[in-house]
Amino acid sequence: MPTFTVEGNQFVYNGENVRIISGAMHYFRIVPEYWRDRLMKLRACGFNTVETYVPWNLHEPKEGQFNFNGIADIEQFIRLAGEIGLFVIVRPSPYICAEWEFGGLPPWLLKEENMRLRCFYQPYLDKIDAYYDALLPRLLPLQCTNGGPIIAMQIENEYGSYGNDKRYLTYLKEALLKRGVDVLLFTSDGYSDSNLQGGTLLPDVLATVNFGSRPEEAFGKLQEYQPDKPLVCMEYWNGWFDHWGKAHHTRSAEDAAEVLEQMLKLGASVNFYMFHGGTNFGFYNGANYLGKYESTVTSYDYDVLLNESGDITDKYIAVRNVLARYTEIPKLELPPSTPKKHYGEVRLTEQTRLFDSLARLTEPVESVYTQTMEELGQDYGFILYSTRVTGPLSQTKLAIQDVRDRALIFLDGVYQGVIERNTHDIRPNVQDNDIVLGIPPTGATLNILVENQGRINYGYGLKDPKGITEGVRLGLQFLYDWTIHPLPLNQLNGLEFRTIRQDEAPFTPTFYKGKFHVEEVGDTFLKLTGWTKGVAYINGFNLGRYWEQGPQQTLYVPAPLLRRGDNELILFELHDTKEAIVTLQDYAELG
């Protein structure tokens, strides 16, 4: 069977020299019905390889319970790529970064208080072994050595930017080898000295580097450590991702194409990160923390060759023109753009309040102290903490120690304000933007609804439990005796809705429901003008988060999520809306 090997500074496949022109595309960010379309567009652009991460948290959502169906059917994605004539690079590291929730690590790892991540800590390694025992047998038949399209696998991901535990890296390498992986193994890192010293297994394992510009500088540094191997940019950042509250990132097609040409002139192989980004459906967006917590938006458009809905961009054309000078572009008929539909306004006519629906959503937990999501076995979504506070008590500062990530505060059902991770000062002295509570002689019920806005996916803050991590204080005094409602919001079928009335009392987090009719199914975009912050569901599928602060103004709705006839839309709105109306339009709005 064919082999893919390194011979000097060349890659050799089945006895012939080959240069890898690859594009990253994540099966878990694309509905399966569109996998072939996106892969065909990759091949038609002149690429010969597709690269994908493998998110552990998607495939083992609960410890010991594995999922390889639907959007998690990695085998089908790889087989499709092979049928289209693409090589496949798989990055099955336990950690993937990828702006994906917790960098792909499953949140149940954090149930163990002393868990140590990404190092030679045996309880962590034992859980990786159990995961690999389920994952790798599915990949082995798809290796090129067994007639499949997989030519290479990654050991760890940008490890040098996190640690330097070579014993850990070696363990992961051996974990792959002893389970039968016999394709080329590699590492990928930034090109600084510390990254290449900490993240590689030189000289035994091929090292690759990640960057977005200055290829001569990057490859020059790589050659100081690895002078006699192929030059590979494993992540060419031709676009970038967005955080809530910041401008949409863009990069010109001309600049991206120019840097590609510089790499090709150097004889390098390249993997575009990304070729097609897709969508962070559900609660799977990650977050960054480098002194400030910043949550990634639902769209993973990334401003790359195919946009979020899979359409060809100017960057696609510019890159294809460059590749045509260095490789033969296959004579393929490009798939047409998927039809985009404007379905118009949808009025949400029914609602049910969160606080009235708790019994239909969750089972309460009684606890002396506040517990995190992970301690309670919860993965994503929201968590509600409730306690009874005795009175009288004069105006006293409320302190949450610590909030992960954003809390809505209610006293006897009345909204008091928001406490956010970045701005909350837990010191007892009162500040201008603090929430100060006065408790009447009869006492009051305190409700704190905390949103997990995405676990950190990169850097030193990776260990990021959600909810309330230590406790809640009024002044210096900790509050005890809590009722806790885990709210993963992964199943809304039990909710009971009623018709919206115009005389509703002041706002409280509310589920809104409406129906719309579709004659002809197509992609569409959910526009939420007048809504504040929340989560959207189409026919029970979690499209992801929306937030009025942008830059994302619409949520992508792929056609396979719709059906001819009646469709159901549910919004979980945390704050308020001017009018319970949305629009389904035929174009996206970012920025």
From TrEMBL:
Q: Which GO terms describe its biological process?
A: carbohydrate metabolic process
Q: What region holds the Beta-galactosidase 1-like first all-beta domain?
A: 371-487
Output the InterPro entries linked to this UniProt entry.
Answer: B-gal_1-like (IPR026283), BetaGal1-like_ABD1 (IPR048912), BetaGal_gal-bd (IPR048913), Galactose-bd-like_sf (IPR008979), GH (IPR017853), Gly_Hdrlase_35_cat (IPR031330), Glyco_hydro_35_CS (IPR019801), Glycoside_Hdrlase_35 (IPR001944)
According to the lineage, what is the superkingdom? Answer: Bacteria
The GO terms this record gives for MF are: beta-galactosidase activity
Q: Where's the active site on this chain?
A: E158 (proton donor), E235 (nucleophile)
The main enzyme category here is hydrolase
Signal peptide bounds = none
Q: What is its EC number?
A: 3.2.1.23
The protein's UniProt keywords, in alphabetical order, are: Glycosidase, Hydrolase
Catalytic activity from the UniProt record? Hydrolysis of terminal non-reducing beta-D-galactose residues in beta-D-galactosides
Q: Name one Pfam family in it.
A: BetaGal_ABD_1
Q: Which residue intervals define the domain Beta-galactosidase galactose-binding in the entry?
A: 509-567
Question: Domain Glycoside hydrolase 35 catalytic, which positions?
Answer: 10-325
* Annotated SUPFAM superfamilies: (Trans)glycosidases (SSF51445), Galactose-binding domain-like (SSF49785)
UniProt-listed PROSITE patterns = GLYCOSYL_HYDROL_F35 (PS01182)
Q: Which family does it belong to?
A: Belongs to the glycosyl hydrolase 35 family.
Q: Please report the name of this protein according to its UniProt entry.
A: Beta-galactosidase
The uppermost taxa in this organism's lineage are: Bacteria, Bacillati, Bacillota, Bacilli, Bacillales
